[in-house]
Amino acid sequence: MDGCRASDGGRSGTSRCTGTAGPARSWERYLPLSQSGSELLFDVFSRRYPTRGRERFLLEREFDRLGRVLAELETAGAISTSAAGALRLLMLTGCRRNEIVTLRWEHVDLEHDELRLRDAKTGARAVPLSPAAKQVLTALPRRPDNPCVFPGRVRGTRLHTLNASWQVVRSAAGLEDVRLHDLRHSCAA
């Protein structure tokens, strides 16, 4: 396996194969015949480089603090009304980030209290709206020239990202370890 060493002598992605394939080859004679070489390599690699699963659920007091900070930052103009509304809807619906930032008014059914997502990651689905989520949507201004629920800065465009706004919000709320996706987990819990 000397051919796997990086030419620069560093620990690049190709140089890692020396560390995993070597032990895999020496263990082959002790394995049952049913286990293939690729399964073995996966087993060895996953033991040597375990992935760290990460789930963070917000406590009720953290949700309250996040709501207060969102209101303060929106009032102060530190984050846009679109970003604040999108973050609130993420907290209240458990939707994915992209499902919210690409949401159009034609997908919002306030009469039946649901979002009808056509292009969701897992296919079309309906997301029920709580009274609080419905209140967020009804409070948002509608722009006649923009079909997006969360319009961007440029006329006729959508909000493209929540990353910068989320960094400001979570920092102000003292929730540095909370990812945007953790809002989805917390809503489901």
Count of DSSP H/I helices: 8
Which range best describes the helical content: under 10%, 10-25%, 25-40%, 40-55%, 55-70% or over 70%? 40-55%
Number of strands: 3
SS content category: mainly alpha
Straight-line distance between termini: 47 Å
Low-pLDDT windows of residues: 1-24
Can you give a write-up of this model?
With 189 residues, the protein is mainly alpha-helical. The chain folds into two domains: 2-48, no CATH class; 60-188, Intergrase catalytic core (hpI Integrase, Chain A), CATH 1.10.443. It contains eight helices and three strands, in the order αααααβββααα. It has a three-stranded antiparallel sheet with strand order 1-2-3, with no helix packed on it. The longest helix is centred in the middle third of the chain and has 17 residues, at 60-76.
